[in-house]
Amino acid sequence: MSKLRSLSPRTARIRRAVIAGVAVVAASGLLSACGYGSQAASNSSGGSVVPSSGSSGPALSASTVRIGYFANLTHATPLIGIQDGQFAKNLGGTKISTQIFNAGPSEIEALNSGAIDIAWVGPAPAINGYVKSNGAALKIISGATSGGAELVVNPATIKTVADLKGKKIATPQAGNTQDVALFNYLASKGYKENPKTGAGDVSVIRTDNSTTPSAYTSGQIDGAWVPEPTASKLVAEGAKILIDERTLWPQGQFVSTNVVVSQTFLKAHPDVVKAVLKASVDTNAWILANPAKAQQEANTALTALTGKGLSAKVLKAAWSEMTVTDDPLASSLTTEAQHAVTAGFITQPNLSGIYDLTLLNQVLTAEGKPAVSAAGLGAQ
């Protein structure tokens, strides 16, 4: 308790909430594969119920909402908002059950199986989940993060893109957003790759983000296309950024994290979904207004979830690579889908109706903020 007393009241509340949530983590069964037709390993921590943090009021139409996200800075909104109590405040008596994942394919499988209701996830797995279900599984209901992904490499052996040939490059999981980005980029440079096995001119090694830094320092991999803070952790170990993904996009903006919901849950509990979106919008506003405090609070949550926080240097570098946003940047989703086609993961998809921004725009309008666009891919 002495450590908590030395923290700010807000940070102390977060740490107590995170520790309480982690203390009740239960083992979960393995989930089946879902990565763009390849065998995608299940990487999740199991569920935990976050305390109400003093929130009051009756439960909404669901007694519990089950939310999935990653222990990544690109998922700063749930990292901060759930553990800080902002989500509980908006949900009243409805409890929050959380599950932590390493990458999107296994998270989408959890959504499809009914293990979670709402998820913060990258665009590639969201596209895959929508296409494979013929548009029945999920809807993208909000943006979350833009940027926050880089290809970082060993500068002793890789100085240019041409040096990638014959090297081992890691991604978080087969079919996840960074995996698709790497395969698309390699294809654009003429490299021949097998998206299912990772074999080719460049060997793609699917590696859990938590073990990627040790794989790099031990020489098992020569680099990685990964989200933050993993990329900045590698840089701290001597790696160099070969490609900042923002440089590949107009105005440096692309969706790296969306919020998705099971269509079944959306239809049955729109009030709960709207409350989650209200909490997300409010949390994002606080993050943008308080970047220094937000970094520290995200780090507090990461410490509890992973057992080790980020150094000040890594935290600052990683945070500078990304920004939170309510806008799903829908125009970039079509490009993301084309990347998956180019990389050989999917055939040309029909994304019509993948977005349902109705509830988000209601929240934004009520707060005097401009509505966001589905770029012609909205609910029909």
TrEMBL record:
Its main location: membrane. InterPro entries: ABC_SsuA_sub-bd (IPR010067), NrtA/CpmA_ABC-bd_dom (IPR044527). It is found in: Cell inner membrane; Periplasm. One of its GO terms (cellular component) is plasma membrane. Keywords: Cell inner membrane, Cell membrane, Membrane, Signal, Transport. GO terms for molecular function: ATPase-coupled transmembrane transporter activity. It comes from the Bacteria. Belongs to the bacterial solute-binding protein SsuA/TauA family. This is Aliphatic sulfonate ABC transporter substrate-binding protein. The lineage of its organism: Bacteria, Bacillati, Actinomycetota, Actinomycetes, Kitasatosporales.
